[in-house]
Design goal:
The complex is a heterodimer of chains A (396) and B (392). Chain A contains 5 helices and 30 strands. By secondary structure, chain A is mainly β. A 5-stranded antiparallel beta sheet of chain A has the order 1-26-25-24-23, with no helix packed on it. In chain B, the strands form 8 sheets. A 5-stranded antiparallel beta sheet of chain B has the order 1-25-24-23-22, with no helix packed on it. Chain B has 5 helices and 28 strands. The radius of gyration of chain B is 20 Å and the shape is globular. Classes of the chains: A mainly beta (396), B mainly beta (392). At the A-B interface, helix 1, strand 14, strand 26, strand 28 and helix 5 of A face helix 1, strand 1, strand 13, strand 25 and strand 27 of B.
Amino acid sequence: MSVARTSLTGVTFYSPSEANNGFTLFSPLSSKDVWMIDMQGRTVNHWEMSYTPGCYGKFLPNGNLLYAGKVDNGPLVEFEGAGGILLEMDWNSKILWQYEDPYLHHTFYRMSNGNIMILKWVKVPRIIAGKVGGGLSGTERRGTMWGDALQEITPEGKIVWEWLAYEHLDPEVDIICPVCSRTEWTHATSFDLLENGDILISFMRTNTVVIIDKKTGDINWRWGTEELSHQNSVAVLNNGNILIFDNGRHCTGEGIGFSRALEINPGSKKIIWGYEEDPPVFLYSSFLGNCQRLPNGNTLICEGTTGRILEVTPRGGMAWEFVNPYDHYSANWGHNNFIFNAYRYGLDYEGLRRSYGLDRPWKTWEEKISKIKPEVAKPSPTEAEIIRSRLEPLGY
Amino acid sequence: MGGIARRKLQSVTFNNPDKTYKGYTLFAPIIMQSRIYLIDMEGRFINYWQLPGRPGEVVGKLLPNGNVLCPVRIFRENGPVFSGWCGADILELDWNNNVVWKYRDNFQHHQVRRLRNGNTMIIRAVPVPPEIADKIQGGQPHTEDGGIMWTDSLREVTPDGKVAWEWLAYEHLDPKIDVICPLEHREEWTHGNTIEELDNGDILTCFRYISTVVIIDKKTGNIKWRWGPGEIYHPHDPTMLDNGNILLFDNGVHRRDSYFDYSRAVEVNPKTNKIEWEYRSDPPTEFYSSVCGSCQRLPNGNTLICEATKGRIFEVTYDKELVWEYVCPFFAPSTQMRHGTLAVGRNSWLQDAYRHSLDFEGFKGKDLDPSRFKLLNEVYGPETFKLGGKIK
């Protein structure tokens, strides 16, 4: 443990004039809770789950929570990011819809037509797996290499579209990182939909981000091998650019170990904006993590393995910082406050208007909070408390 | 701007006097600060040495007479690719900062050690002969330093600067066995970082790029023991313990088949090559330094660990309980780093840390009063100093 880096939890910095006001949603990885907090760190809502996250929940425009849970006896349960069940529930944790598939992992997307795009593991046919370059030789899982598939399913659970990565990737181009195992070819962790329905997806083990043509299944854009190191998240921005959380694990050369947010112009393949901390090693999550562009131009970054969520301005200044105060135990990671990702929902977000009634009977969140007694997450210690907590162990 | 949560707490952040091993801790911020500091258990500065340049990658410990022996970087054109980390004036400074010995080597890197016979051993960069370099496996293709692959030499020099002994890594390592990590560049084969003189005069050293710790027979130059690949990743600072085991810092960069990064302190039995003790944090990701770092077994069985890139030094018991923690309060920008892409920002990066016992012979007759450095302690010392409190 580290006292210095774990004593401060809750909201540790907040600049109301610079931050994008709203509620932040996160699901600690080793607990069965989903928390929505306000800018002060006060709990706005808490959903209690029957499953730990596999890997997170998202707040939908219809006011419901869509949550991917991890089924503990799944067939690939030892794989990082394993899921197994999708649950849609209302503000009061009532389950409205669910979908099960033991091979679900990491992420999902509710489409505007009401269908859901899911990500799952499928076996890579042996004849293709044998040709895939890279990775530690002989480390396939019981002789099998697993790959990624996307499926579009209707609310009734009918599969209406499917994309199998091994049919479109090139075993000689899409090479596994040399110090990763060959249990999986690609290890997708994140995808997003473009306006035209095409899919932007990130493959961690091959350090690649690609765009898939929804109609043909062809890969019509790819980028990353020269620049990325085991990136965990991608998102399409309104300006057409791509926002990536580049973790920085297993980078070539003598990497000092730091993560960064990157905005890429897909046309020029140039990095047009980025954020890394000063010093860079103070923002590092070797796995997990994401970033989200907010309406006011700020970027919300989740540093997964420290449970830290920060909001930075376009010029790299800090607007808000929060450290997940909830520590839980897991066999894999010990006592941790890991988070897979975090999302901010502005107070004008449709889902909040519907579920939280920000329009009626209260006009603003401030008005509403004055009428209810919020559950306080765990307030940050004051300066005096910090000094006292430091002096006491020293015997003063 | 760095995060608040990450850098708000500095100096001594935890101290359990019932369980610590009392003494004075030596450390130096690595980047452009040019000072070596000695602090007490409360984080008060009791001495510092002002260097004419940046200290090298290993500071180590005080000499038995209380002097500091440290390489100070000199920057040259046309040096090896890692010239920012290579070439030094090796200085011995007494307690009052006077230079009492100086030796220049344009290819020195990492550790400098004073041997028991009074000579000084240094690690130097030497090019691998091309016919050997061609056979060396691993590394990223075509990443040599303008066609050159560098490796290490251990060189012993007398007080008047004569070469008394030299060991060239390429004469003793095996290109088939000593394979470079697949993610590293091929500009270096080995990247040695440690010199530890054993009781019988043999040398314990550590090669980062091939993740291997070796014992070199001082008389024949042969490698008597080797261990590491597949167990540890890009390690630092092996030391021989009284029980015959070897303690080392396993940085964990490029750790095979691991989806997250963490560092460890590892105690290995060289007879069985089994790990008999290790410390990793809970959760493991909380303790990670990709470069530098050190660990030291203290006389009461505790272990002092330096998490270099975070500027954190901490002491744990054999049962892995945290009993002391210090966070470096000095932040400075780095301007001269090894690669242009490796900017490290305003950082508090340390190389290593060493705890000297209260009864260490080098302290005899020395002024250890922290009030000699009132201003330094008021600004960077513990809260008691900042709040105008009494010095105990």
